[in-house]
Structures are given as C-alpha cells and as structure tokens.
Amino acid sequence: MTQVLTPDPVGLTVSSRINKRLLQGELTQNQVNDFQDFLTKVGQEFLQHRIITDNAYTSWFSKGRATDEELRHFIRQFSVFSNLFLVAALLKVINSPTLKQSRASREILLNELGVIYRSPRHNVNPHMTQTEDEKDREGDPELVNTEGTVDGGICRFRAAHFEWLLSVAEGLGLHYEDIGKRKHGRPTTLHFCDELQRLYGSDDPQIAQGASFAVENWAAAGFWQELEVGLTRIKQTRHPQLHLAFFSWHNRVEAQHAGHTLEELEEVYFQSDFDHNKFYQGGREILEAIAVFWDGLNSDRLNHVFL
C-alpha cells in the first residue's frame, strides 16, 4: 500500500507529480519520504524567515499612510531593484545547467522585458483587425495573461515591467531619468541587487537553485499583497491618478513562479550530485539580502532619509 504523507504545516509537500512517479515505480517510498523531510526543512528555514513572516516595512506600508516623499523614495528604491534584477535574471539564463532550466529562466526574463504570456485559453487571432489603441492596450498589465508561456507570445514595449513601474512613478512626479539606475540606489538596495547577481545568477547550479526557490517563494508569500493594499488606499484617498497594475499583476502572478521553482527542484533533487547544503546556502543568503533591502527602507523611513 502506498503511504499517505502528512502535509508540511508551512505548505510545502510532495506534489501529484512526485506521487505519480512513485506509483509508476520511478521513485521509491523512501526517496519520497526523504524529499518530504527535505521540503519540511526548507519550509522551516526559508518560509519561516522573519522577513517573510514579519516584514515591518510592508506591514506599515499596507496601512496606506506613506507621505508623498516616502512614496517617491519607495518607488525609486523598488525601481532600482526591479531594473537591476534583469542582470541577475540574464545571469541565471546564461548559467542554467540544462536547456530546460534555461528555457524556464528565459520565461521570467523575457516576460520582464515585455513578451506577453500566451495562454492557450486566450489565443489571439493574428488576422483580427485592431485599432492602434487596442494594440497599445495589449501592453496594459490589466489585460495581459498571468499564466502561459512567452514562446510565441507578443512583445510590447509597454508590457515591460519597468514601464509599468514608470507609470506609477510618473503619477508621483518622477520621470524615467529619476529611477532605476544604480546611482538612485541606497547602499542597502544595491547590496540586495548585487547579492541577487551573486546568488540567483550563480554559476553554481545548487546555490542558484536555492536562491531561486527562496526568491520566488518570498515573492509569493504576501508582500505584493501588502504593497497593493497600501497603494490602493492611497489611490482612493489622495492620488486617484496612480496606475497600480504593476503591483496588482505581480500579486496575481507570483504563485505561478513559485510553483515553477518546485517543479525545478523536483527534477534536480533526486540526482546523485544534488547538494543539500549548497541549496540551503543559496536560500539563506538571499533571504538575508532581501532582509537588508526591506530593513533599509524601514530605517530610511524612521530616520527620514530620502534620495
């Protein structure tokens, strides 16, 4: 009889894909049990990290009380992270150990750059007549897909994530030249960006795997929701002109990215050269860098330090 596993209390448990491999005889029960134990430890060490469970900055931000000066500082620092993430994402593509992992990494990078996910449930008729306005609106993140593949997708300049963030910045009096460059970043922001390149984009696949898993599960754990809630309150009370789709879209899509990292982990975990310690190292170190970023923003807020 196949053993029924008790789900991990923090949400990481073996998937139906693993159970299928067990039933087909590809994996043994002991291997599956070991993998569940591993996922439980990952959940405890990664998903219970204090920057995921108790982020002081995003908790404050969700109340919608940020002043315009605080908002501009937040957008500027977030734009530096968002723009420089492209470097880390490209390194992840370059250093991917397999073609399949390279393609998975390119999905994220190309979508960041403006290639819209093509969902089989929302196929576009290439012969359909569209107005220029309708074509332009395909770049609106309220209208593009949150799932699917970039393979065969349409590229739109305005669908680039940085341009969505720029539209938020412009509602606060910031312009393209005011955001997104290293010169706009506080030391804590730049530390996070550099650690993303070192760990998420590492040429050691085990460290990169751990960092990627931690980053995507951090992104899916709720901070986007807190940012969206806070900005929505500000939009409703003070700034009706704010375009918030950058935040609402990411809030919807990150669970898909986290799911992909679990699939990737399932593929490499059972290989003989999988190194648990390096995986943990990549995850722990990137979570500490994430904490430096958010703690830096919170310190700037408390000490009224703004660029």
CATH topology: Heme Oxygenase, Chain A
**Number of structural units classed as domains:** 1
In what range is the share of β-strand residues? under 5%
Based on helices, strands and strand pairing, what is the structural class? mainly alpha
| Helix-strand topology string | HHHHHHHHHHHHH
* Top CATH class: Mainly Alpha
Radius of gyration equals: 20 Å
For CATH, the homologous superfamily is named as Heme oxygenase-like
Query: In percent, how helical is the residue content?
Result: 55-70%
Mean pLDDT: 87
| Uncertain parts | 1-10
In DSSP terms, counting alpha (H) and pi (I) runs of 4 or more, how many helices?
A: 13
Question: What does it look like?
Answer:
The structure is a single chain. It is built from 13 helices and no strands. The chain has 307 residues and is mainly α. The N and C termini lie far apart (63 Å). The protein has one domain (49-122, 133-303): Heme oxygenase-like (Heme Oxygenase, Chain A), CATH 1.20.910. 63% of the residues lie in helices and 0% in strands.
Structure characteristics:
single chain; 307 residues; mainly alpha; Heme Oxygenase, Chain A; 63% helix; globular; disordered N terminus
Quick summary of this structure?
This protein is mainly alpha-helical and 307 residues long.
Secondary-structure map with pairings?
Layout: H1 16-23, H2 29-47, H3 50-53, H4 56-61, H5 68-94, H6 99-113, H7 132-137, H8 161-170, H9 187-200, H10 205-219, H11 223-237, H12 245-269, H13 276-303
Helix pairs in contact: 5-6, 5-8, 5-9, 9-13, 10-12, 10-13, 11-12
